[in-house]
Amino acid sequence: MIFVSQLIKKMVLMNDTKYAKVIDFGLPSKLQSPEVSTILLKNKRGKFAVPINEAKYQDGIFYLTKHYTSIPYNPDDFYLVEDLLDKQVIDITGKRMVRVNDVLLKENGGLKVTGIDVSFAGILRRLGLGSPLKTVTIPWSAVEAFDYQTGDIRIKFGKSNLNMLHPAELADILEEAGTKEREGIVEVLDIEKAADAIEEANSETQEAILEQLPSSQLSKILEKMQLSEIADVADDVNPQTFKKILKLLSTERAKRVEKLMLFPDDVAGGLMQVTFYKVKGDRTIGEILGELSKLQLQPESIIVTTYEDKLIGQVHANELINANPNITINKLVTKPFSVHKDESFSGIFRQFAHYNLRVLPVVDDDNNVIGAISIDAVMQRVEEEEERDDAI
Amino acid sequence: MTRFKQQVVRFLPIFAILGPGIISGSVDNDAGGIATYSLAGAQFGFSLLWVLFITTFALAITQEVGARMGLVTGKGLASLIREKFGIRWTTFIMAILFIANIGTIAAEFAGIAAAFEIVHVSKFISVPIALILVFLLITKGSFKRLEQIFLVLSAFYLVYIASAALAHPQWGDAVKSLVVPSFHFNKNYLLTLVAVIGTTITPWGQFFIQDYVVDKKLSKDDLKIERGDVFLGSFITNFISFFIIVACAATLFIHNISINDAKDAALALQPLAGPFAAILFGFGLLNASLFGAALVPVATSYVITEAFGFESGLNFSFKEAPEFYGIFTFAILSGAFFVIIPFLPLLSILFWSQALDAVLLLPILVFVYILSNDKRLLNGYKNGKVINAVIIITFLLIAISSIAYFLSQFIT
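YS: structure for the whole thing
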């Protein structure tokens, strides 16, 4: 990964002597491919373009081959600095949005454009200031067209290319997108993808989205969201939105959310999920495997309890497959770890780190299992913690 | 009835377009404007009127250039600078604009404070109240309504015409001074000259006019009407400025009265209003200052967010557009801060901010010149020779007077 701003003005050597300076990169005309095809150089005699494969990039310097081909300037070519950098990015409805603060390239033998940086971090980078801020990019696949008349970049978050993205990438885009844009993005996402992306986004973005979405869509997304995430967000949204959210949830789920909200964020009870897979200890492995495939569940770990819902321990899903299907699951329990619902985050973190866990059951005063914390939730909390530190 | 409706409909497009130039022009006669013209008239009589003659053309032309660029490209000046010159120059120009605008906002608050001092209200009371009022005007009041109220109230300036007439000035001399330049190599004269230009042609006005026509979604077809609007706006502005200077010259200059605060400046209205001069003056000053104080910070926010690509607009909440709200809040607070510094006279803030505006306009004019001569950008709509000449003369007039003022510091 490298930014265009980091390559501009780089030295170009030929036979170990300084020959020219890099000023721009060209893509093939009409944007047929994201591969950089030409590099625009400048020396005392003027500007000239050469095919990118005749200028090898290594450790911050371009090495130009001796008998290079000079390509005539083609106005149909698309140049990254001239035509893309600093331009306005607008969505398909023509609303004003953000600006191209930098262009992200990937070295794959040649150079390939992978995205546009629309974040404030990009501005600081180009001003030569270091930035503690996060870079947010819009993937190149979302760029729909270039308006040669106005110089604006049109992007379209098409259904297919948005749904291909990882929820974390989507969350980044949602965080940086304008208000109207967000609505449009969430609208075209598959419900499950939308729920995942919202879960990954920072709390301001979560709030904004939940406050904005129309009820019909919101109820579908809420259905797919973890109750613990809903409870987290519910703490921050305004009371009306919160009431709306509770109303849209089924009575059962609404009750659990309200219960979860009683826990402070930074103890086990606030971090846990309340939907997880648990079984009684006397079930056989065969029965359990059958049930999992019927319900199409793929839990990482199975929490085993007694008939009174008291914790016995957990079994990693991988161990089930190799085990004798006729034995009962309590024979396989190896990890009897758990945390009390009031345990602090540092205590939880210690257990995860020490025993190398993926899942940690949460129990109440009577050793009843009331929830489970996943490693993802822990990592997310660590990340938030870091962001908060960075912000200070 | 139907006849009347037809008439109205026929003229409606004109009403829709007429506006930006006139608003931009009227706001030029804000607190800083009244103060600067009053000082110019009181200290130097008619001898700065020739500058006004030149700035009328300079204002008309620079506003026309801004309006034309906006109509043809559909983009604001900040956008054009960013897209043509990149992030570094944009940051430089935005920093300059921001400083100039904070100066202008400080002048608006100084105007509010000065108006209240006439009725013996201390600036430590009036400025904080005005601060809250301005913030509410921006965030709660609709801009449209604001605009109309202001335009109606700015008819206040007409009292200067009457007052000037009643003071029986030497009209012949006044008109002669308008076209025959006189030049004094005097520190104060040079500074006032710079301030007179700076209060007429402003950095923020240059951005404002272009954003305004873009915002109204006007197109190339509206160019003729829009030209008429900016020319008329520029003429009206300076027509009034002329009477402010003449009124002050005829009342203060000939009696050797120097202006130390708003009350002194109000004496120019005495021929018309007699004992009510001070109240009348205070009212006009307050109206102009309040509108400027609400308009300039928001305009600043619009321009900077446009340049850097942040969400902007008052229809967003603070959470949705934090940069937009943050910028104008900071601008208002810093402007007001300068005014409540204990030993800084209000008149100095009013006057110096205008001189600062003129100097900071220089780099902006360079960018306006380059962009408005760009063939690729404007096609057949690039500047003609006369327009370029006027921009260059304006630039040189500011540059030479500023340098001369600077040098005069060492000579006298």
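YS: worth flagging: The first strand of chain A starts at residue 2 and ends at 3.
IM: good catch. Also Chain A touches chain B through 21 residues (CB under 8 Å).
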